[in-house]
């Protein structure tokens, strides 16, 4: 289960890093535009204005997608449910059967560990004479 939580954390971290990188790239574009603005003001101004216009068009969709990503709550229960669903799809075994199998394995493990213990010392009881 901790592996699934690690994977969920990795996905979250990757999404966060990707968003940060994209924003930083946008700052880079802005920097290039400013550099080019000093060379040819009219072309760069038009390019910048077209980028702003395009950004304005894309912003609502991007906000919607980002809020959908961050609105999902990842819980241990949802991860377990998803893991059981995937397991049953690949193995054809349902979660309840896996739980039953786990309990049987636990019982067998206990029984085997009891077999490995040193047997109790048996003392002979002296025979009594019958009258």
Order of helices and strands: HHHH
Low-confidence stretches: none
Structural class: mainly alpha
**Number of strand elements:** 0
Radius of gyration: 33 Å
Q: How can the largest sheet be summarized?
A: none
Q: What gap, in angstroms, lies between the N and C termini?
A: 70 Å
List the helices and strands and how they pair.
Blueprint: H1 2-39, H2 41-71, H3 76-91, H4 95-116
Helix pairs in contact: 1-2
Offer a few descriptive terms.
mainly alpha, single chain, 4 helices, 131 residues
Please sum up the structure shown.
The protein has 131 residues and is mainly alpha-helical.
Give your account of this protein's structure.
The longest helix has 38 residues, at 2-39. The protein has 4 helices and no strands. It has helices at residues 2-39, 41-71, 76-91, 95-116. The chain is mainly α and 131 residues long. Helix 1 runs antiparallel to helix 2. The radius of gyration is 33 Å and the shape is rod-shaped.
């Amino acid at each position: 289960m901790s592996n699934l939580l690690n994977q969920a954390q990795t996905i979250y971290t990757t999404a966060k890093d990707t968003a940060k990188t994209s924003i930083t790239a946008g700052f880079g574009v802005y920097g290039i535009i400013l550099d080019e603005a000093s060379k040819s003001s009219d072309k760069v101004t038009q390019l910048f204005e077209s980028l702003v216009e395009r950004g304005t068009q894309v912003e609502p969709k991007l906000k919607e997608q980002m809020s959908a990503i961050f609105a999902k709550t990842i819980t241990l229960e949802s991860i377990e449910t998803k893991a059981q669903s995937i397991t049953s799809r690949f193995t054809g075994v349902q979660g309840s059967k896996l739980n039953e199998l786990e309990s049987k394995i636990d019982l067998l493990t206990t029984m085997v560990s009891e077999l490995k213990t040193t047997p109790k010392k048996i003392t002979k009881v002296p025979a009594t004479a019958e009258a």
